[in-house]
Design goal:
2 strands; elongated; 4% strand; mainly alpha; disordered C terminus; 65% helix
C-alpha cells in the first residue's frame, strides 16, 4: 500500500509538470502566431494596395481589442482601437499626399508587440 501511494504521488507530479510544459508551449506558439499576424497585417498596410490594406485592417480588427490604446509619440494624442492603428501605421509609411516615405516594412524594424 505504501508503494502504491508513492507511485501515485510521483505519477501525479510528473503529470503536473507535463501540463505546465504543454501550457507553456501553447502560450509560446500563440505569441508567435500573434506576432506573425501582426507583421503580415502591417506589411499589407504598408504596401498601399487596397486589397492588402483591407486584409491588414481585418487582421488588426481580429487580433486587437476595440479599446486598444496606441501611443504613437508625444506629439500625437493616443489613438484608440484597431482602426486608428491602421491610420498610425499608414501614417508612418506614407506622407499626406500618399507618397511612400519608408522603404522597408515596419515588421522588418523588429518593433516590440
Amino acid at each position: 500500500m505504501f508503494v502504491l501511494t508513492i507511485g501515485f504521488a510521483l505519477e501525479s507530479r510528473s503529470e503536473k509538470q507535463c501540463n505546465y510544459f504543454q501550457e507553456k508551449s501553447k502560450a509560446i506558439q500563440e505569441i508567435d502566431l500573434f506576432r506573425r499576424w501582426c507583421a503580415k497585417a502591417t506589411d499589407g498596410i504598408g504596401t498601399g494596395v487596397d486589397q492588402l490594406v483591407k486584409e491588414g485592417r481585418q487582421t488588426y480588427k481580429r487580433i486587437f481589442s476595440k479599446d486598444l490604446v496606441n501611443s504613437a509619440g508625444r506629439a500625437i494624442p493616443p489613438q484608440i482601437g484597431p482602426k486608428a492603428l491602421v491610420q498610425v501605421v499608414a501614417g508612418a509609411i506614407f506622407d499626406a499626399t500618399g507618397k511612400r516615405t519608408r522603404k522597408m516594412p515596419l515588421s522588418d524594424l523588429g518593433y516590440a508587440i
